[in-house]
User: Fold this.
Amino acid sequence: MSGQVRDAGGRVAGPVPYRSLPRLYARLAGATVRSQLQYRWSFALYALGVFGANGFEFLALLVLLGQAPSLGGWSAAEVALLWGMSTMSFAVAEAFGGGFEKLHMVVRAGAFDQVLARPLPVFFQVMTSQVEAHRAGRLAQGLVAVAFAVSGGSLPAWGAGEVARLLGAVLSGAVIFFATFVIGGAWAFVTVDASEVMNAFTYGGATLACSPLDLLAVPVRRAATWVFPLAFVNYVPALAILHRPDAAGILPLSIDPSGPLATLLVPAVALAYLGVASLAWRAGLRRYQGAGS
Assistant:
């Protein structure tokens, strides 16, 4: 399978084999990471800063929960699990979606025409333009939060099923956050500066997911389920891991959150949302008129 690209003069430059893109991405990402590691102290301090910034948020959450035995019926360990799952998903998505987050600056500077002139798919170029390995600090903080939740002994016993659900939830949540970054990139073709609007959904969504969804107002809860599927980042899979009922009524048709249908619903929603993001990206790219230079 291959696709055609055009050069600066509009001529067909030739097919690009899509099967070679994963290997090319690995080489480009590896080169970017190696260049970042050339300044090891700077890299280490940056990653430590990301870890610390998120650590303060987590400590503030623990202090809050230390003043009360639970938050709407959710214990400190359960909230820590939600926080850790959301943080890990967002860290993975941010590592792949940083180029879409910064795309509005490229378009505004008139440099996007250079992307169109290169013999590679535009989506691939944008995805590989910002590979930030220091985001591993955020991922590490999420792992610490999950370890804190599990090590307390207050959660139900974990087995292979719970670990598999956790890994699947983190990957599905990463797809949802990544799709949101892609939609933000598509929005950059429509408006001059879409950063603040999309930050409300990306970083704001990651923050919102730190709290149990059933504590939110009903309109916000519905929007965070069927408009921006935040509920499927961590809330729905956490119900199965923690053996809790669906008190918020998120799942349709009274689906059992611990059943196989709910397990399949999480990645299905993530892939559907990624499909919507792909359509938005194509629509936004068609609206691009060029820098005029």
Q: What stands out?
A: The first strand starts at residue 2 and ends at 6. The beta strands are 2-6, 12-17.
